[in-house]
Amino acid sequence: MTGTTDLIKLTAAETAAKIASGEVTAVQVTEAHLARIAAVDEKVHAFLHVDREGALAQARAVDDKRARGEKLGPLAGVPLALKDIFTTKGVPTTVGSKLLEGWIPPYDATLTQRLKAADVIILGKTNMDEFAMGSSTENSAYGPTGNPWDLTRIPGGSGGGSSAALASYQAVLAIGTDTGGSIRQPAAVTGTVGVKPTYGGVSRYGMVAFSSSLDQGGPCARTVLDAALLHEAIAGYDPLDSTSIDAPVPSVVEAARNGNVAGLRVGVVKEFGGEGYQAGVMQRFNESVELLREIGAEIVEISCPSFDLALAAYYLIAPSECSSNLARFDAMRYGLRVGDDGTRSAEDVTALSREAGFGDEVKRRIMLGTYALSSGYYDAYYGSAQKVRTLITRDFEKAFESVDVLISPTTPTTAFPIGERADDPMAMYLADLCTIPSNLAGNAAMSLPCGLAPEDGLPVGLQIIAPAMADDRLYRVGAAVEAAFIARWGHRLLEEAPSL
Ligand code: GLN
Predict the structure, then answer these.
(1) Residue whose CA is closest, atom 5 of ligand 1?
(2) N- or C-end of the chain: fewer Cβ atoms within 10 A?
């Protein structure tokens, strides 16, 4: 019999194999994770809601299926932490906001449905920056999440709850969403793996909208193979999402099982590095470049000059789309309603509810976006930002003519202390400097651990970027890099994290 501690440390692939072979039951695996949550989440605060009964019911269904001799899918019985931005029928969905406190969605997001169809066990909903706006999870209306490596530091954002759940062994898999980096940056600062699939690769139906042309759901895991298994479970065409890609899903699992960079051309983005980057981050990144060379990749330096404008363009486009998307929270259809005492107009109730329900960062973005879209300013701001977006896409196109993938550090620094950037939006925005271009261009990108920064002993992420619809390349390269690092260290990076 495998002990409880061993059960929480398994990979998803191992967990599913043990359940399929009957060595353990899905209920045992689920109970082990629920016990772990009960033991550590008071300290970490990764979850906003734990669906104990729902998870156990799902686990029993998996065990029943097996008892009946039905074939189990590759992730059957594996516990997962779901970012609280996806609707879950009958289970609260808050998006980290007071505005949706207590809202129980009447339907499942397509992604939620696919997880259930794959017999993945949904443990609960994870903490996040309100409406996915932030890089630290400090913008959650329900309080911050701690980084399991050091609970006084941020776990990244906006999906800090998902990354922290993985790094503290409360879940084997997790789901995030990445509008400007919210899957990759949390992965980088917690020593886990996160992938932003090609835009349109995973359905947005039932994923609360922040910036529709940038938002992308994707997999989070502790290993590259686990991320690939989850990627295949959630990806693929959905007629309910008008921007969903109607084409076969890239063979990411096969790629993850065949990690190899021999003869591959890897471009190092020249614009990402140097001033403003933590020395230890650059050291680990440069070592990753050397490692890639050692295992057979050809390294080329690539310049993408318009990446310097990406942050500015993003902070016009994302707020603009958010100002429009968040207009639906009018206190009439769902969520918080304030001041509805029979004396006030509907407009006043809407205004009072939005005033009370939205946090400062959300309000800042709605104001910024409304201003940028107003007539007279539209061309100067939103129009210019869209032009920059085209330039960035062209830089990528040109780069991918001469290289197969691009690499960079995922973030300029390791996890910063909770509170350090809370009152400084500009400093906060810089955390996504290296991740934003891929959202603007819609291509695919991954972050995986590449070591600990010597000065603070905290994880550093390596970003790999591939052209749209070439998500498999991320996994092929990622798996090769991961295997080479494990061979060098003798274990996974996460094993160096202090135990909670
Ligand atoms: N940190 C970025 C922002 O605040 C990205 C957020 C995200 O990817 N959801 O907008």
Answers:
(1) 180
(2) N
